[in-house]
Design a protein that fits this description.
By secondary structure, this protein is of the alpha/beta class. It has nine helices and 14 strands. It starts with a strand and ends with a helix.
Length: 335
């Protein structure tokens, strides 16, 4: 059966045209995916190419070209199912990077690199005839050794590999924090902060705990409030400071671990959005108590957390140490 590809323009948008596989003309692009599957031990599921394929008998991550009408995530899941018989949950996938390749005839492709955090059992792998012939679980060091020995697809085809191996076991939002041209979660403040800030007194002293790249701090500073804000992420704080300079604002951003933060003054508002379920229970409980003690009369604590009503999502689970019980947070403010 003839396989057709969607023709993309230089910006990655569909043109509405189709081409037979491998027949792209100058100025035409198509979509390719690379899929890296990492278990909770930091091992990647890699597979071996059959001897009849280009780069015969070399190991690789799973990958392939999108057929007409399929988007990136559909292609990622489909390629893994076809080549290895493994069903990936799309919710476990994170688009790590997109880059562009150009070929001699003037055509090119967009390569979407996916990182799935999902544990796979090797005995469940089913090889696709004439595509894959072996599979293994391998850590970062093992894969690098295989590349150096010529056993794995070369780095020239994996230009993102060092970045992937650096970010794969870090908090998932670090990828966005390192990208000065992207907004990690969304542009502007979170909805709760945008709504609640209407009740703040003018020129309030505010502490933003776990501020990330500063979306809420910057918004509140633009409303005339005075902001101290910290986060564990050096990249997040660096990005927040850069945005602040560009906007001519004055915000005291600094890097700090929640467990090492020491209050040296009282605040009118203490804000913590989506953070306090991450550290150990003892750390977050101690912080909540100290936050109450350092909130000015008639001041506010605004805290949003994940509870155990649902399990932590796959991207959060490795870093979430203390989901709150339902009702636990309000109970800490009884009276």
């Amino acid at each position: 059966m003839t396989e057709f590809w969607d023709v993309l323009d230089e910006n990655g948008n569909k043109t509405g045209r189709l081409r037979e596989r491998g027949s792209m003309d100058k100025g035409e692009y198509h979509l390719v995916v690379h899929v890296w599957i990492m278990n909770d031990k930091g091992e990647f599921l890699i597979s071996k190419r059959t001897s009849n394929k280009p780069f015969p008998n070399l190991w690789e991550c799973t990958g392939g070209s999108a057929v007409a009408d399929d988007d990136s995530i559909i292609t990622a899941v489909k390629e893994v199912r076809e080549e290895l018989g493994i069903t990936l949950d799309p919710k476990n996938g994170q688009l790590f990077k997109r880059y562009t390749r150009h070929f001699e005839n003037g055509s090119g492709d967009f390569v979407d690199v996916w990182l799935f955090r999902q544990t796979v059992v090797l005995s469940e792998v089913v090889f696709q005839k004439d595509e894959t012939c072996d599979a293994m679980l391998a850590g970062k060091d093992k894969i690098i050794q295989m590349i150096d020995k010529g056993l794995f697809i070369g780095r020239e085809l994996l230009p993102y590999l060092d970045d992937l191996f650096y970010f794969c076991d870090k908090l998932f939002w670090e990828i966005g924090y390192h990208d000065m041209n992207a907004s990690t979660f969304a542009i502007g403040p979170t909805k709760d902060v945008a709504d609640i800030c209407r009740i703040f007194n003018p020129n309030s002293n505010i502490l933003d705990v776990g501020c990330g790249e500063g979306r809420n701090s910057i918004f509140l500073a633009e409303q005339g409030h005075m902001i101290d804000a910290f986060d564990l992420s050096e990249a997040g704080i660096k990005k927040a400071k850069s945005i602040t300079r560009d906007r001519g604002l004055n915000i005291n951003f600094f890097v700090c671990d929640l467990g090492k933060f020491i209050f040296d003054k009282d605040y009118d508002v203490i804000l913590s959005h989506g953070v306090l379920h991450l550290p150990e229970k003892a750390v977050r409980d101690k912080f909540i108590l100290e936050a109450q003690e350092h909130t000015a009369p008639d001041g506010y604590n605004i805290i949003g957390v994940f509870t155990n009503r649902l399990p932590a999502t796959p991207d959060n689970a490795p870093f979430t140490k203390s989901l709150f019980d339902v009702g636990e947070l309000p109970a800490k403010y009884t009276g």
